[in-house]
């Protein structure tokens, strides 16, 4: 699995470095104006072997191609069928959320809705997040400002999302 590092570039945007399994690197710089620069580095080179600059629209188009929006390899068809009903969401707990102050156990998320909370994140500052808990137990109490990563069937995820209320 690739390793991804994120860095804030004050006044410029954000930088994402993706170290591939073969020790090659892809660096993406997302500028505040929406343009993206993509650099490819060989495992032992300091200078990029290739680079490209894309507009915001071009970046989104390329992202949808890479993400499989236009073509899906045949080997992934079975996987898609298996997870067609699965939905993973990132949900922010607001001060006025129905869920605030209640625990996973109080709500019986797994038993009543089949929802699994995968992780809990908190704002770290400068747009970053820190992991509060991975696979929290039934005693975890939902706190304002936390971001919940949860998985469940689409039909069960909708009532769960309503507990979070409107965006903070």
Write the layout of secondary structure elements.
Elements lengths: L2 E7 L3 E7 L5 E7 L4 E6 L8 E5 L1 H11 L10 H7 L2 E7 L11 H4 L1 H5 L2 E10 L2 E7 L12 E7 H9 L6
Antiparallel strand pairs: 1-2, 2-3, 3-4, 4-5, 6-9, 7-8, 7-9
Question: Can you walk me through this structure?
Answer:
The chain has a five-stranded antiparallel beta sheet. Strands 6-9-7-8 form a four-stranded antiparallel beta sheet. The protein is α+β, with helices and mostly antiparallel strands and 168 residues long. Helix content is 21%, strand content 38%. It has two domains: 3-66, no CATH class; 84-162, Alpha-Beta Plaits. It contains five helices and nine strands, in the order βββββααβααβββα.
Offer a quick outline of the entry.
The chain is an alpha+beta fold and 168 residues long.
How many extended strands?
A: 9
Strand order of the largest sheet: 1-2-3-4-5
Shape: elongated
CATH class of the largest domain: Alpha Beta
Number of helical regions:
5
Approximately how much helix is present in the residues?
A: 10-25%
Unreliable spans are none
SSE string, helices as H and strands as E: EEEEEHHEHHEEEH
CATH architecture of the largest domain: 2-Layer Sandwich
């Amino acid at each position: 699995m690739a390793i991804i590092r994120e860095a804030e570039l004050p006044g410029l945007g954000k930088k994402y470095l993706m170290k591939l399994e073969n020790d090659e690197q892809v660096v993406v710089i997302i500028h505040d104006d929406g343009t993206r620069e993509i650099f490819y580095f060989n495992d032992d080179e300091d200078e990029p072997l290739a680079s490209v600059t894309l507009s915001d629209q071009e970046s989104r188009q390329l992202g949808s191609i890479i993400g499989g929006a236009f073509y899906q390899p045949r080997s992934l068809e079975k996987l898609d069928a298996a997870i067609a009903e699965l939905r993973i969401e990132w949900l922010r707990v607001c001060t006025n959320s129905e869920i605030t102050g209640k625990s996973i156990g109080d709500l019986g998320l797994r038993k009543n809705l089949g929802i699994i909370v995968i992780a809990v994140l908190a704002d770290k500052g400068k747009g970053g997040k820190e992991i509060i808990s991975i696979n929290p137990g039934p005693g975890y109490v939902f706190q304002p400002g936390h971001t919940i990563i949860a998985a469940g069937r689409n039909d069960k995820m909708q009532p769960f999302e309503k507990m979070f209320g409107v965006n903070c």
